[in-house]
Records
---
Amino acid sequence: MSYMNCWEFKKCGREPGGVKAAELGICPAASEQRTNGINRGVNGGRACWAIAGTLCGGKVQGAFAAKIGNCLTCEFYQRVGMEEGVNHQSSKDILAKLQ
């Protein structure tokens, strides 16, 4: 089974080499190496809800506390939780890696 990263699922184009990377910059989720491998993602690709500065809904999202409410209703967030099941890394664990 292939596990999608957020930029693949959302088709935002902000991954390295993506169609919007030059215009909007590379997304922090695509470049955050401290979260590489979490929930079987590349960099922060499957931990995007814990990474500040991602672009969702057409605007830059802030810190975890400001954005988690939106993330909890996100189809991608829910998909990762379903795919990972009991092995789903908690936001608390992800945030600890980012400190």
---
Amino acid sequence: MKLEVPETKRLLHTMTTPIRWGDMDAMGHVNNTVYLRYMETARIQLMDENGFSINSAGEGFVIANIFCNFIRQLEYPGQVIIKSYVGAVGRSSFDMYHELLRADNSNTLYANGGETMVWIDFPKQKSVPLPERLRDWLKGA
């Protein structure tokens, strides 16, 4: 079953990262776990750049679920473009989606995926409402 990325999403961030030799597996292509690492790197950069870094003594986000659809093989050498989008925004969670493309072939989708992020109070280990500033930013206010 292929999990679908919704049509209604808003672009938040684009970053480029090199494909490293060590990202490949014995089959000569980027290992499947590395695709999730590329998405994680983009997600963390996006949140840090916009003032929503994780504060383990306070509040921040955790991943409730994550998925990746592998469409084409990525191979070394090259650079990956990761486009990050926001989808549905709830009381204490929001959905993010990512598209992975090669810098030298940016019209071809290599993978897509996403995650549901839940805002929590780390000391209480409990979900809490998204901060107003985060909610406004996600909704494009």
---
Amino acid sequence: MMNTFGHEPLNTAHLYEQVADLMEQEIISRRLDGEELPGEQALANRFHVSRASIREAMKLLRERGLVDSRRGSVSMIRKPEAGNLSAMVSRIIRMDDIGYHDIYGVRIIMELEAARLAALHASEQDLSAMRKQLAILKDRGISADLRRDTDFAFHLLIAKAAGNRLLVLLVETMSNVFKEMINAGIFVLGGIDDAIVRHDKIYQALLSKDPAAAQTAMLEHLEQSRHHVAVYQSARKK
């Protein structure tokens, strides 16, 4: 016999996981972001399970970033945020002891292509947004935190100008990791001035709509940034 969602009856083993999986499929397929979920009893009746199973299923959905229960006892469906994924990726990288060489290897793969595509497709609105971030970076009086966040925002704008939504998501997912690398360069002698010059060079290549120059400027920037991280980490070990 099929249940009310058109699926075969649920097995008794790990019932709450099966309920969570079915609810996830429904949320994603119907794009239910922002909608309110039915109460525990209504869900229990719908899936023919106990309220305890529904509570456990809801815990899983919260862990997956699909449900937000902050509004009292009401649960709202939400789209998973890249920031939550970024924290998870950062923890995995730390636990697997993935070093900065590999991180920069990934940055080079993603950001050189982003720079090439941005040189071809960046709109005046994209370039204007980059100019604003660049102006903030050129202010040597800003805090380290603002400089780090602005630096990352500049790179994210390039990914957005590239016109590939998945690329943007991947860069956002790596935000915590990339910001750690950016932060290291801020505290290396000459790192701030070097970053200002190199970001401006990238921007000028994008402004000129020169894909090859944009890739070259991005590669030179990332290679120098990798060197700054090496210097920073070496100094911390002493």
---
Amino acid sequence: MDTLEIPIFPLGSVLYPAGLLSLRIFEPRYVEMTRACIRDNSVFGVTLIRAGYEVGAPAVPSEIGCTARILQWQEPEPGRYTLLAQGESVFRILRRRTLPSGLIVAEVGLEEPPDPLPVADRHEPLAELLADMIEQIGEVHFPKPRRFEDAAWVGNRLCELLPVEPERKQKLLETADPLAVLDEVGRLLKELRDQGGAAD
């Protein structure tokens, strides 16, 4: 397992590999983090908050998150940034510490990405659903290249779109098998459809 030390940005949402993330940065600790990442073309870590809040005192991060690299940035005024970042690798926090600025820095181990797997026949309807959703929402909101034949890519994009609580999305991020992720996505979609039918 490769390890590295990175700043951690706890959020109320989950980032997946290849996923796009828009951020507005204004807290001094994250402004400094942003400047360093832009200068060094380095990554930071996005983790779901286990306890606490995005703003203010340092939140408690989940142990597993996803590295993010800044693709585009603007500084509309001094000390404020708007960013577009992209998820790269799933990681596990091994050790962490909080700097006097309130920024969390962690030694993380990068998880091995799953071997490329084709979308199974039973998951073809999910790949078709994703293609329809991308067309409806707009391709600009999704990463390129499109990989509808890749089970991990399809699973990650559907996980981003699922209207479920972040804790369930976190469990999907922590699931290493892309086919198991798609199985669970299918179950969640059926559950949501059933709930919608019960409400009608």
